[in-house]
Amino acid sequence: MKKVKVIFSSLVFTASLLMSTIAQADNIKIGVSFRMLSDVGYKHGMLIEDTVKMWNSQGGINGKKIDLTLYNDECKSEKGVANATKLAYQDKVHVIIGSSCSSVTLPMVPVITKAGVPQIIPHSTSSKITMTGSEYIFRVPVSSRFYKIVQGKFTAEQQGKKIAYIYVPDQASMVFAKEMIKYMKDEYGVDPVYQVQAGEKETDFRSYLMKAKAANPDVIVLSGLVDETVRMLVQSYEVGIPKSVHRVANSVASKVEVPTNAGKAAVGVVYSAAFAASDTRPIAKKFVKMVKSKYGVTPGHDFSQMQDLLDMLKPALEQVNFTGNLAADRNAVRDSIAGIRNFTGLASGPISFCAAGSPECRDGNKTPVMIKYTRGGKNWKTAVAGTVTFKPSEGL
Amino acid sequence: MEKFKEIIRQYPFLGFIIAFFILMAIPSIFFTDLYQSHLSSLIFINIIVAAGLNIVKGYCGQVTVGHVGLYAVGSYTAGCMFMYLGASLWITLPVAILVTGLFGVAFAIPSFRLEGPYLALATLGGGEAIRLFIENGEFFGSTYGISSISQPELFGITFDTPDKYYYISMPIMLIAIYFSFSVLRSSIGRAFMAVREDPISAAASGINVKKHKMLAFILSAMFAGAAGAVYAHLPPGYIHPNNYTVIEMVTFLAMVVFGGLGHIWGGIIGAVIITIVYDLTRPLYEYQLFIFGLTIVLTILFMPKGIGGFIDKYFIDRRFKKKQGVASK
Hints:
The complex is a heterodimer. By secondary structure, chain A is an alpha/beta fold. Chain A has helices at 2-25, 39-57, 77-90, 102-115, 144-159, 171-188, 206-214, 226-238, 257-262, 282-295, 301-318, 326-338, 359-362; strands at residues 28-34, 66-72, 95-98, 119-121, 137-142, 163-167, 194-197, 219-223, 246-249, 270-273, 363-365, 369-375, 381-387. In chain A, strand 6 (163-167), helix 6 and strand 7 (194-197) form a beta-alpha-beta unit. Chain B has 2 domains: 1-30, no CATH class; 34-328, Orthogonal Bundle (ABC transporter involved in vitamin B12 uptake, BtuC). In chain B, strand 1 (153-154) and strand 2 (157-158) form a beta hairpin. Classes of the chains: A alpha/beta, B mainly alpha. At the A-B interface, strand 2, helix 3, helix 4 and helix 6 of A face helix 3 and helix 6 of B.
């Protein structure tokens, strides 16, 4: 009797496992890996979850439900690689969204390329990522190769060429400062009047700022993560760098914490990004209102890029005829994403991809926008200082 | 069975050969996807670090919180040798072990004068200094990291996928464990324990305390170096200073504490369980760090000897009952 019970329960278990596999085989699987450490990071995750829930409540994509798997990579390459491997081989997702940090996305590329899973990047800007030549990688944000040009050109032609640079040892911050230094040298033949790499997690930048002040610059480039950017801005006034010296920051300045926490010190700061909350287009106004009411923050470009990514992905998935053959379906998803042309969403310019795995084809947004803070604090305001659309091969 | 046990006791190497063949067969029998191979390689790497950490902390009683820095030295020795010389794992591995061993000397010196929390602080500073030095050094790839580190080749096979790399990381892990067992079961291992229990008594018994502290740090560092090199070549071959922070160090310590400090299997059990639990709790990312913190606190409160302590207790109880049975007969 005991034996019969064991056999019966094993059969039931196997059958239920099979049933669930069959049921899940029909679903479209999306995997996500990005930095969900901060409050805003979690909110990006919530935005994806809410959007996918909405898709499912509307009947899914062509009648198929979406299974979402969300992993935190803590901005660490080891975890990003593990997540990508798990999503590709164990969770068997059709497409991966991620990551936030360039240092995590970069090592994910060979993993997803080998596995043949398309990956769309919501936030990472390092130009190195798409230069890997992978046919499976797509980038929604503006690449650092465009940022350096727009920022360099704007700074040199409108603000001055005597530039001091203070940057922190985070990849995006360093890439921004170093690429800008190189651009200024190559295009205008000017060297920095002062440049320094601050230590990791440093909180007092006054000694660097004093030295920068002594170099009498026209412009001071402050390239750091959120907390460091805020501190550098506030401390730049504490050490007496006058308002007439232009403050430039990297795209991190688009994050809500910067104007909120820097207060008055944020006024006049210029940065290049892919979205401005001051955008007057109805779509942007609606989005800002939605994020404010639902997530309690004014969205920066990380929020808008995530929303754009999801808005692009849905029609791309709708065009795929899912056959149940994972490799073929993944390739079909890749081809469908590669077919996106001139997607107009929240981003500063249209987003287009094409078939080749080259940076020209896979750096979707080629239109960075120059933004200036006109008011700091909780009710911060921005103004668009200029927009440029680049040729796909620019900056390579 | 008793005969088999006796043979293994006499020739412990035989046990490792059997384990090797079992572990060789596991992927083809149990693994259903490549991620399991990747996770296994991570487990093996963690086992090597934890086994080393168990030597210095569990056996020799030296509180080190900078081991992750030595792990980074191993990784970056391998990474830089690949980047500048194009060296493969077969060359980078022994060099990384040697270089990290030398760094172990530097970590050992403070232990001659410092103890407990003071030594912990000194080693913590050492570990962080190494990471910051790497992060700020362009020679080491700074915050860009080092990418595309090649995977090893053997008999015309390139071990460039997680399933193939399993067969590289697994034997290295077994060799490391065998070496760890050999050391800890030797007179050196007993001397380590004597130093841990009471350095003054150990010195009075003729044990050179300084020499053994130094030896423990060097051996332990060599394990970290080996693990670091194996990690650097793990597909896709990318290393970044962010992977060698205090959080990683706490995870290594959690492995040793959870497995059982000073227990010969402690680090190994801890590395396996912690890596698997970490993986299983991946979707619970909001609570993951909290779960880990809580695990360490609860382990220290209610299971100070870790799982290894339970295993010891089980065997002691069994032996005691057996003897009782014999006595009553």
